[in-house]
Amino acid sequence: MKPFADLTRFINPRNVAVVGASAREASQGRRLYDNLVLHSAVPGEVFAVNPAYGEIGGRPCWPSISALPEADIDVALIMINASLVLDALKQCAARGIPFAVVMTSGFSEAGEEGQRLEREIAELCRATGLHVYGPNCPGFVNVRDRLGMTFSPAFKDDLNAGAIGLATQGGGLGRNLLQGLSHGQGVGLWFSAGNEVDLEIPDFIAHMANDPQIRVIALLMEGVKNGRRLTSALELARARNKPVVVLKIGHSEAGVRAAQSHTASVAGSAAVNSAVFRQFGAIEVDDLDQLLATARLLTRITPKSGNGLCIYTFSGGTAALAADIAGGAGLPMAAFAPATKAALRKLLPDFASIDNPVDTTADILRNQQASVECLRILCADPGVGTVLFPIPMDYGAITDGMAQAIATVAAETDTLIVPVWMSRRLGGGFQLLETEGLLPFLALSDAIAVLAKAVPWKTPAVQPAPSSPPAAAAASGGRMLSEAAAKSLLREAGLPVPQGVVVANAEEAAEQAARLGFPVVMKVVSAQIAHKTEAGGVRLNIASAGAAREAHAAILDSVARRCPEAKVDGILVERMLPPGGREVLVGVHRDAAFGLVLTFGLGGIFVETIRDVAHRMIPLSRDDARALVREIEYVEILEGVRGQAPADFDALEDLIVRVSDFAWQHREVLHEMELNPVWVGAAGQGAMPLDALIGYAG
Amino acid sequence: MKPFADLTRFINPRNVAVVGASAREASQGRRLYDNLVLHSAVPGEVFAVNPAYGEIGGRPCWPSISALPEADIDVALIMINASLVLDALKQCAARGIPFAVVMTSGFSEAGEEGQRLEREIAELCRATGLHVYGPNCPGFVNVRDRLGMTFSPAFKDDLNAGAIGLATQGGGLGRNLLQGLSHGQGVGLWFSAGNEVDLEIPDFIAHMANDPQIRVIALLMEGVKNGRRLTSALELARARNKPVVVLKIGHSEAGVRAAQSHTASVAGSAAVNSAVFRQFGAIEVDDLDQLLATARLLTRITPKSGNGLCIYTFSGGTAALAADIAGGAGLPMAAFAPATKAALRKLLPDFASIDNPVDTTADILRNQQASVECLRILCADPGVGTVLFPIPMDYGAITDGMAQAIATVAAETDTLIVPVWMSRRLGGGFQLLETEGLLPFLALSDAIAVLAKAVPWKTPAVQPAPSSPPAAAAASGGRMLSEAAAKSLLREAGLPVPQGVVVANAEEAAEQAARLGFPVVMKVVSAQIAHKTEAGGVRLNIASAGAAREAHAAILDSVARRCPEAKVDGILVERMLPPGGREVLVGVHRDAAFGLVLTFGLGGIFVETIRDVAHRMIPLSRDDARALVREIEYVEILEGVRGQAPADFDALEDLIVRVSDFAWQHREVLHEMELNPVWVGAAGQGAMPLDALIGYAG
């Protein structure tokens, strides 16, 4: 692997040459020259090179690189026709100029001839040790040392340096980030090496990992040229404790197409890219505003930030919404120390919520000092690592004061304060937060998404409780029917149920099994046993009369040992359905707001893991059932994978409508029911509940 | 079900009474009175009621409702101590006042006494037909008719009426929406009925569904009091063709807690709520800014909007990022008509991209007229229903002009133009879009999320291609090893593989099966058959020598029929592993950027449906393997569900490291390998690949 380039002389050159400097006002060659001569602090000389001019703006101009006077030139900036670039680079190499920046377009992004030129440049680099940055790039900006090797007219306004190091491939989106970081902690170095013929993003990462003034590395990548160099550079950044945040364009097919036409580099498969970023500790984000906000937030994170999240606001609805979104993202909410609560209680009105989320109520709006006090109290709590402070409305002077309170406390605490300016009225308060460099978020969910990615939370993130399958809503004091009773109710209601009979002893079991036809399944019948399998109360695949006798004894034995208190009403013997059926769940429960709701989903092991379910209010029409079945995420399991025949959708939909009808008829008393698993055969084979629970209100 | 209330006299009252009107400046009672007297256009009289005053602001004040002069009072606004409210309501009922708005707090949200009071109010409503709005609410605002039955000091600035009808429960967040909709299409009616003792959100939805001036209904709900009334109201809105967009607070546990303490209503289960909204055609959103933007966008949607998405920008990186995010969201990209391309080609420089996404390049920045032309061309294309126009940088006057171009074309086309102002510099261009009522989005992903929800796309949304499992990356011209050859290579490399032997005839099969011990599995060995099961080349669970003989014949027969061209090298007989193992996949493929990458995931049917996989660059350490195994989403399937013992993680991790080592040793030539399924037993039972494919580069 090619070692990382030493960029010291590139970052801080003494003398530079501008090849293609122009006297023509507003030309790119002139802007580049002016950026260096007028707007940069180049310690040494800026040599203009252009055979067309004897002088530019009153300063001398030379006809070629070779013709330049004796001087230690560190970087040659090249903005001439693509066909002339190779020769200029050869002159650079011959003079021992270590770095050349080729801004000119018309290389690999433009077609075969350009690709050939690029290969020759790469060959020249290998042969001579010359380092080339570009081609097809907007240049390099060293904001902190006022050095703009770029033709961008915006460079003269890039005045806000900071601890964020930025590497991009194209130029346009980097400018967006610089505009976003024009207050507070800004961008110190901005690399943007276009086609990356020689110097690549990994070289820049490696430099920034070692640069003591850079604390956070932000990457905007359209393709990965050399994966192993990239991961080595990421490893170096991790070793140096420099967090890396990356936006990788090229996730969807459409995006990949555009990325390839744009930078002509190889867009790796999105899933692999993401896995590699995770593996090497880089934080991947999904949009440009997230890249900006995450980079900025990373410069503000302290060892305390991950202790726990506090939501603090003056509107109850906002508190609820923020807690809701934070809960959904799994952020750990801080538990307040007693001293914190006591102090808040003293300061806030009685009807304020002094628990997390804190809702001061609007009373605090009139008292800026109380805002400051409250924030100080929260920030002093050791369990509070980050305070999320949503401001839902712009109330003019009142919210200006609130913004001032945030700025005041943020400057004195090691707790991370994250303001969210939720109003579209971006008044004085917003402007103050912006110019103070606090980069207020504009939406709660944006803030929370970034906090989830950027903050190293110490408490493991609490996953939100997944919606429980209906059976988990325990029959609160109601009456549960045994499987056998439930099935006979269903049979009366016209639902298909397996052929079966409850037997009283082993001999009867053998007889009935033979009558039903082998194989059979046998299950204990007891209203006290909800989990028959766990009680040893189920035997499958019984293939002979002898086996049925044996199974009868074994079930009674297991149940007696595991559920000694259960009253056994007999053993249910049922014909087994052919193998290869798919298992689904059809359940009904009573929702507090909407009444009886039907749940359909994948059954068996899927119920507790993937929880792939969909719901609909009862009663359902046949069309509802049809839509419901297709609403689950992995409906292809029913449609058939690996050449499997599709399931019997007709029968399944019919069963769902019958369950809905049954539940609707019993709507006054039905508490819950669950058919799980429901066996669904291939088209034409039918659908049948293998187990059934029905619970009535007490 | 209680019928929906007729709100005609409530929305446009002639005479109103303010019970609790106050002479004290800045009191809520005074602000309420002033809002009606000074800032509202009440056609009739505003009667002040307060026993403490003879007059307020020079106008008469009466001691009680009963004492008011003869007049047809439509609405009584009540802002007095909670303990006095019931009596005041009784006076209202006695006088035949049809509506009362109770703003006072201290009811069900405050505890038992308040709950009792609320029950009595509800009883009074039932008995007398009085309609109560509230209690614990900020009032009602009829923006379009300048009527503020509210104590909010902000009401006098609520001047921007429009076709959006808003119903909330608490007041705070509604204010945010009004601030956001203060230009362009605004809020016409804002209901916010707090505890909803009588009038509820469904009443307001039903009114707005029938109100000809309301085109879009926006809901911000913290709880659902009466699900069936809600769904009836949603049905009515759908029948009247009024789109409904809803933000429901209370998705996560934390959110539910805050919502309950705030409005004291029942927060239904989040999954059921979402299912019901979907069932009844309401668009559910996740955050307040989405609610705002979706409501606004819905007022701008035309029958053409869903035809196809066009992305139009002047920066290649932005085009790529936008296409990427839109692709990820499954939005259908428009295909341009030939005339569109021809017209763009004439207008734009050669290096611009005139395909979708359109990248005009920065040249267009200098020419506002060209911007207008370009937009007109795109909007005229019948396949373009929506133009997403991201502006990544604020370039001062240049981007101001671009904003003007958007406003110009937006006013004349039925194509939806959606601007995204991506820069944090919110200069003149942003302000212009804002005041023109175009509500520019501030981030690409926000815009695309809303477009995905709000626009009824005609082309079914194209799902992004899921990342393929390694085997799908076909061995391009390389050499594939047969299963038997692959397994013997793995065995040599120290990997566990099932005991087995390749046999040449049925007799040998029976002998070897007996030697290995029953049950065995038998599989065809042929380099030409990649999918053995589909070819009928696999028999499982062979329990006797006779069955082995039979299976040998059956396999040869099937294979001869289904793959007549395949050369059969024998039949592999293997000892079957005990039942109850879990199936996983361990694969290796070569990524263009990162080289060999190992994929781990759930095997069997899961590979093609759930695609629950994780990746890591090779080589992997033991720690890498440990982390990788736990990175998949449904790791609980390995940890054991339903009382199942955990899988043998040790053996699995060991196997993964060995696969990685094997791949690393063969890294120069290995193209891909796939072990699928890998059988993983319970802890201590080991892990073993049941099938193996190895492909070398050609």
Automatic annotation (TrEMBL), chains A, B:
Protein name: Acetate--CoA ligase family protein
Claim: Phosphoprotein is one of the keywords in the record: no
SUPFAM superfamilies the record matches: Glutathione synthetase ATP-binding domain-like (SSF56059), NAD(P)-binding Rossmann-fold domains (SSF51735), Succinyl-CoA synthetase domains (SSF52210)
Keywords from the UniProt entry: ATP-binding, Ligase, Nucleotide-binding
Top-level division of the source organism's lineage: Bacteria
Species for this entry: Achromobacter veterisilvae
Organism ancestry: Bacteria, Pseudomonadati, Pseudomonadota, Betaproteobacteria, Burkholderiales
GO molecular function, one term: ligase activity
Record flagged with keyword Lipid metabolism: no
UniProt cross-references to Pfam families, sorted A to Z: ATP-grasp_5, CoA_binding_2, Succ_CoA_lig
Domain annotation ATP-grasp: ranges: 487-523
